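USER: Fancy drafting a protein?

ASSISTANT:
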Amino acid sequence: MSLWERALAGLFRLAEALALLMGLFILLVILAQVLGRYLGFVVPSALEMAGFATAGLIFLGLAPTLRAGGHIRVGLLLGRLPPGARRVAEAVALGLGLLGSLYATWQSWLRVVESYRFGDLAPGLLPLPLWLPQSFLALGLSFFTLALLEAGWKALKGGKG
């Protein structure tokens, strides 16, 4: 395994760990909200925080899921193509996905910088700076872009992407 592959594996493990922490955070927020209702107190912006964490969990989980082969693919179509055409079709699909992911990643990081610069706050009771949850989305898209790049490279080299 090359240094590049080990570095990517480490980054994708980091993405998995962050997604796991988001899931744990969602669980704790919901538990606090349930206990709060039972004991008579309100957890401010619980729904909002759980929503932000859900978005973070989803986007941070994109890259590890792609690497594990968990994303929906058109296997029925690809399986009927000859090996050369299958490799080209997969490379084209991964290339188009990479272009879309690059654009989304760029735009999401621009949103993070803009929110930070203008001091945007979440509209709930808790004055949470918006750049914080937005950065988890942008980070997840960055990892996903790297995973698509890796998969495309493998597909071009003749391996499975």
